[in-house]
Design goal:
Elements: H1 2-22, H2 29-38, E1 44-50, H3 56-74, E2 83-89, H4 94-105, E3 110-115, H5 119-131, E4 135-138, E5 154-156, H6 161-174
Parallel strand pairs: 1-2, 1-3, 3-4, 4-5
């Protein structure tokens, strides 16, 4: 009888601990980000992520972003708030990109992410950003899978591979090419 009561007690204790660990103690990073964004005097922190130091194109891309931020800040910023640009190098590696995405997703000061470049990095990072309520736009990732997940906060400003292939085939056909 004592053993049966002990087993019931242990079962109830473990059940309560499991219930408590799953209810009400999870961090709401979206709410934290919203609170940071609503502070009037705060800068707007935007992260840029990609293989920054590996490719010449990346340095020109980053130079363009820095120039745009400089011009915006010289005019008073966005709603009188300056942009604070933060640069992260994912080295074009999936695990580096995932680690950076987790870091940025957990930082309530980051309001948006520009990047990643490579589709194999962007696709797994996208779910991390979307789940944390962090806006992400990529200018380079072209794999159609990125936008097939119907994310609310993940965008691209670059056509996907299927659209580019279709347009190239259409153009070739207009030029009289058969193959």
């Amino acid at each position: 009888m004592k053993v049966k009561k002990s087993i019931i007690f242990v079962f109830l204790f473990v059940s309560i601990i499991m219930w408590l660990s799953g209810c009400g103690f999870e961090r709401d990073i979206s709410a934290e980000r919203e609170a940071v964004a609503s502070r009037v005097k705060n800068e707007i922190a935007i992260a840029v992520v990609g293989p920054m130091w590996v490719m010449d194109d990346a340095s020109r891309y980053l130079d363009g972003i820095k120039l745009a931020v400089e011009e915006i800040n010289e005019k008073g910023g966005v709603n009188d708030r300056l942009i604070d640009l933060r640069v992260f190098d994912d080295n074009g590696l999936t695990m580096d990109g995932i680690n950076i995405a987790q870091q940025l997703a957990g930082d309530p000061e980051i309001m948006a992410v520009l990047g990643h470049w490579n589709s194999h990095v962007t696709i797994p990072a996208a779910s991390i950003y979307d789940n944390s309520g962090l806006l992400m736009i990529t200018a380079m990732a072209s794999n159609p899978k990125l936008t097939q997940n119907n994310y609310d906060l993940v965008f691209r400003n670059f056509p996907d591979d299927e659209l580019m292939g279709s347009e190239m085939a259409h153009f070739a056909k207009l030029q009289g090419h058969q193959r």
